[in-house]
UniProtKB/TrEMBL annotation:
<keyword id="KW-0004">4Fe-4S</keyword>
<dbReference type="GO" id="GO:0046872">
    <property type="term" value="F:metal ion binding"/>
</dbReference>
<dbReference type="GO" id="GO:0051539">
    <property type="term" value="F:4 iron, 4 sulfur cluster binding"/>
</dbReference>
<keyword id="KW-0411">Iron-sulfur</keyword>
<keyword id="KW-0408">Iron</keyword>
<dbReference type="InterPro" id="IPR007202">
    <property type="entry name" value="4Fe-4S_dom"/>
</dbReference>
<dbReference type="Pfam" id="PF04060">
    <property type="entry name" value="FeS"/>
</dbReference>
<keyword id="KW-0479">Metal-binding</keyword>
<protein>
    <submittedName>
        <fullName>Fe-S cluster protein</fullName>
    </submittedName>
</protein>
<feature type="domain" description="4Fe-4S">
    <location>
        <begin position="110"/>
        <end position="169"/>
    </location>
</feature>
Length: 178
């Protein structure tokens, strides 16, 4: 087992102390730097930094960044959610490390959908039916994997199919965090 112990630090945003969400650091007792390229390859990292090594994932509107000595997670409801996510990630790290012989490590980020390409496929009515103030904001949220064709009631069936086909070319970290 590569990762066994961590200490959880929960904190509020320093730049927005009134924010309802909390953030966390899981300070790792073991150095997991050598596992990061495998984690990136297996889970489809949103961003990979080589020096110092880290991999970032976008999962359900949260940013999760894994460094060799800590894990950072933003936009959490509370400590219980933080523990759930960190424990899930600990299991993933250990499972991927055990299977590393089957995985080709990668230090490249997964390809990302382009905002302008998504915007071209939207009706551009700024109707707000999707819950966003404009189609541009909807497109930005779609690049993050937070929105998709099911969230835009104004799309024609043809436009829906085109948007689904375009977004289907990209891997989004959409894991079952148990």
């Amino acid at each position: 087992m590569l990762l066994e112990h961590y200490e959880l630090e929960i904190f509020n945003s320093k730049c927005n102390p009134q924010a309802m969400a909390v953030h966390c650091f899981a300070h790792l007792r073991e150095d997991i730097s050598q596992a990061l390229p495998y984690l990136n390859a297996a889970l489809g990292g949103f961003e990979y930094v080589k020096d110092p090594p880290s991999v970032t994932f976008k999962v359900s509107g949260k940013l999760i960044t894994v460094h060799g000595d800590k894990i950072a997670v933003n936009a959490l409801k509370d400590e219980a959610e933080a523990r759930k996510i960190v424990e899930w990630l600990k299991r993933e790290i250990n499972d991927i490390w055990e299977r590393r012989a089957e995985i080709t490590p990668s230090d490249q980020a997964a390809p990302r959908p382009q905002l302008i390409e998504i915007l071209k496929l939207l009706p551009k009515t700024n109707c707000k039916a999707c819950g966003e103030p404009t189609c541009m904001v909807f497109a930005a949220r779609a690049t993050e994997g937070v929105k998709d064709s099911a969230n835009c009631p104004e799309l024609t069936p043809e436009a829906k199919a085109k948007l689904d086909a375009y977004l289907g070319r990209f891997r989004f970290a959409d894991f079952e965090i148990a």
